[in-house]
Amino acid sequence: MSDINDKPSEQEQLNVKLEQANRQLLQSEKLAAIGQLAAGVAHEINNPVGYVYSNLQSLGTYLDDLFRLTDAVDAGASLEDLRAIKQNIDYSFLKADLKDLLAESREGIERVKTIISAMKDFSHIDDEEFKLADLHRGIETTLNVVNNELKYKANVIKDFGNLPEVECISSQINQVIMNLLVNAAHAIDDFGEITVRTQCSGDQAIVEIVDNGKGIAEENLNRIFEPFFTTKPVGKGTGLGLSLSFNIIQKHNGSIAAENAPTGKGTCFRISLPLKQPEASPGNQQG
Ligand SMILES: Nc1ncnc2c1ncn2[C@@H]1O[C@H](COP(=O)(O)OP(=O)(O)O)[C@@H](O)[C@H]1O
Ligand SMILES: [Mg+2]
């Protein structure tokens, strides 16, 4: 009789194995998401870097032209000659274009700076501590990081309410928001709209991600949080994004739920997070 209690049963051993496998899969989903992000960020940075580079080349040519003019002044050229050179180098165009080139290059560099600081914010993956965080800042960061996935699929509308800081592991909440945004974009066929809405309700912070995509079939609504549940073709979906998100929100003592828009067009994901973690909650323990 006591045998049964001393040794873990076969069922218990299986459960432990399953738990391990689950953890490994979630880890690989995380890595896949990071790979996808890296590709997106490379693409986002490539464009501004490309035109800043070509602007620098134009700047070089313009400077050569301007030096021709100043050198001619040094060489004591006649006023007529100087005017001829000025006309020859298309001085007025050059003057206007220089301004444009500099403005455009500055904008490009700003864009790269924004992406890099978003990546920095985003990459505190090992940071497993609950801290007070500004959810809006996290959402902005995440939007910047997934901009490449979203901009061809949807207008993103930010409808932010008043939110106090929320006690959370912000890198993990960012990851949930990212999963929801990418899913929303995937659900849109041509070009649609994604709304990110926030509000405070009692002691809960609410974040809603609403899309006007194809919606979730009624019979799938209670399956989407299952690991491996996907309606996407092989290679496109892992079916782990929402189950990972569910685990993260659970660890935060919050809730996440999906419902189709009453109009039958699109889906709303609603996350509810306690502003403060209950003392000695499972979420506050290490592990
Ligand atoms: N915004 C959405 N609109 C429609 N369907 C969705 C949406 N978000 C999730 N789904 C459904 O839930 C499934 C599971 O999502 P997820 O766990 O992120 O896995 P994956 O995106 O890899 O399929 C998706 O395959 C899709 O059928
Ligand atoms: Mg997904």
Describe this structure in words.
The chain is an alpha+beta fold. The chain has two domains: 1-123; 131-284, 2-Layer Sandwich (Heat Shock Protein 90). Helices cover 55% and strands 15% of the residues. It is built from seven helices and seven strands. The protein has helices at residues 2-6, 10-74, 79-88, 91-122, 135-150, 170-187, 241-251, and strands spanning 131-133, 154-159, 166-168, 192-201, 204-211, 255-260, 267-274. The strands form two sheets. It has a five-stranded mixed β-sheet with strand order 2-4-5-7-6. The longest helix has 65 residues, at 10-74. Residues 283-287 have low confidence and may be disordered. Adenosine-5'-diphosphate (ADP) binds next to helix 6 and helix 7.
Descriptive terms for the model:
single chain; 287 residues; alpha+beta; Heat Shock Protein 90; five-stranded mixed sheet; two-stranded antiparallel ribbon; 7 helices; elongated; disordered C terminus; binds adenosine-5'-diphosphate; binds magnesium ion
